[in-house]
Automatic annotation (TrEMBL):
This is Uncharacterized protein. Residues 253-266 have a biased composition (Basic and acidic residues). PANTHER family: AMUN, ISOFORM A (PTHR21521:SF0). It comes from the Eukaryota.
Length: 323
C-alpha cells in the first residue's frame, strides 16, 4: 500500500504529481455526483472551471474600470454553489445566502475584498509574517460572516476565489491533510469545528508548506496546496491509490538504505562460505586426481606381472649379440 505524503515531508516532485491529478479526480467526483437539477445545469467539473478563471476575470474588470476588485451577487452565489458541489452538500446554505439583499451581499463582499491583503510567502519569510497575514485575512473574514449563510468556510471560499495566491479555502480534505503533521490526529476521519481558531492553524500550516517548497525553488500558492489536499482526500474516499512518486521521502530513503545495508551484510557472510566451498572442491579434485594416478600405477604394474607370466622368453639373435 502506498504511503500518504504528508506536508512536512512531501517533496516538490510528489507535490506537483498530485496536483497534476486534480482534473482527473475532479471528473471522477463530478461524474459520481447527482445530475444537476432545476435551473442549475452545470456539473461540478464545469463550475470548477468557471471558478478557477474567476480571479483573472476580476482582475480584468478591475483594470478596465479602474476600481478595486469586486464581485456581483450572482458570482457570489455561484461560488457558494461551487463549494457545495465540491464538498459536502448542505441544502440550507444557498437559500440563506440568497436571502441577503443584492445590495447587502455585494457591498459586504466587496468591502472585504477591498481590505489589505496577506503578503505572499517568500523563502526568507518568518512565522511573524504568517501572524501578520492571519490578522489581515481574519479581518476580511469577520466582515463576510456578517452575512446570512456565510461562516468561516464559505467566507474562505469567496476570498480564495479572488485571491488564490495567498488565501487557502477551508475545505474538509485540505484541512484534514494539512493537519496530519500534528500528533494525535485521526487522519481523514478528523472532526472539524469550522471555526476561526481551526482556520487560523490551517492557514499558518499552509503558509509553512508554501515556504518549504519556495525555499526549494518552487513557487507554490495557497490555492495549489488546497487542491493537493483535496485530491488526496477524494482519492482516499474513492479508493484510488498511487505508488510513491518522484523524490523519495526521508523515511522511504532510510528504509531503502537499511534494506541495502542488510543485503550487503548477507552477501559478506555468504562470501567466506563460497570461498570455503571452492577450496573444498579444489582439495577434493586434487585428492581424486592423486588416487587416480596411484590406481593407474597399480594397474600398470599388475599388467606387467601378468604379461611376464603368459609371454614366452624372447630368443636373442646372435647377430644382435655380435653387433
Amino acid at each position: 500500500m502506498a504511503l500518504l505524503p504528508i506536508p512536512s515531508t512531501i517533496s516538490r516532485t510528489e507535490f506537483w504529481a498530485i496536483l497534476s491529478r486534480y482534473p482527473a479526480v475532479l471528473k471522477a467526483v463530478s461524474d459520481k455526483k447527482n445530475k444537476p437539477k432545476g435551473n442549475d445545469s452545470r456539473t461540478l467539473e464545469e463550475i470548477d472551471g468557471w471558478r478557477d478563471s474567476l480571479s483573472d476575470v476580476v482582475n480584468q474588470k478591475k483594470g478596465a474600470k479602474g476600481i478595486g476588485k469586486s464581485l456581483d451577487a450572482s458570482q457570489v452565489r455561484d461560488i457558494v454553489l461551487w463549494k457545495l458541489k465540491r464538498g459536502k452538500f448542505r441544502p440550507t446554505i444557498l437559500p440563506l445566502v440568497s436571502s441577503n439583499s443584492v445590495k447587502d451581499l455585494e457591498s459586504t463582499v466587496n468591502e472585504s475584498l477591498g481590505m489589505p491583503l496577506p503578503g505572499k510567502v517568500t523563502s526568507d519569510g518568518v512565522d511573524d509574517d504568517d501572524d501578520d497575514a492571519l490578522v489581515q485575512v481574519s479581518s476580511m473574514m469577520k466582515v463576510l460572516i456578517k452575512l446570512k449563510g456565510i461562516g468561516p468556510a464559505t467566507a474562505t471560499a469567496i476570498l480564495s476565489s479572488v485571491f488564490p495566491e495567498t488565501i487557502p479555502m477551508f475545505s474538509d480534505e485540505a484541512f484534514r491533510w494539512i493537519m496530519m503533521d500534528k500528533p494525535g490526529t485521526s487522519g481523514w476521519n478528523r472532526n472539524i469545528a469550522y471555526n476561526a481558531k481551526e482556520y487560523s492553524e490551517f492557514f499558518k500550516r499552509v503558509r509553512r508548506l508554501c515556504r518549504k517548497l519556495v525555499s526549494e525553488g518552487e513557487a507554490v500558492d495557497a490555492g495549489s496546496v488546497e487542491k493537493v489536499g483535496w485530491v488526496l482526500g477524494q482519492e482516499a474516499a474513492l479508493g484510488i491509490t498511487h505508488p510513491m512518486e518522484g523524490t523519495p521521502t526521508e523515511s522511504s530513503t532510510r528504509m531503502r538504505a537499511e534494506k541495502g545495508s542488510k543485503e550487503g551484510v548477507r552477501k559478506q557472510v555468504q562470501k567466506p562460505d563460497n570461498t570455503l566451498s571452492s577450496n573444498s572442491e579444489l582439495s577434493k579434485s586434487v585428492t581424486d586426481g592423486l588416487e587416480t594416478i596411484v590406481g593407474l600405477s597399480k594397474t600398470s604394474a599388475k599388467r606387467k606381472a601378468i604379461s611376464a607370466e603368459i609371454s614366452p622368453p624372447l630368443r636373442r639373435s646372435k647377430r644382435n649379440k655380435e653387433a
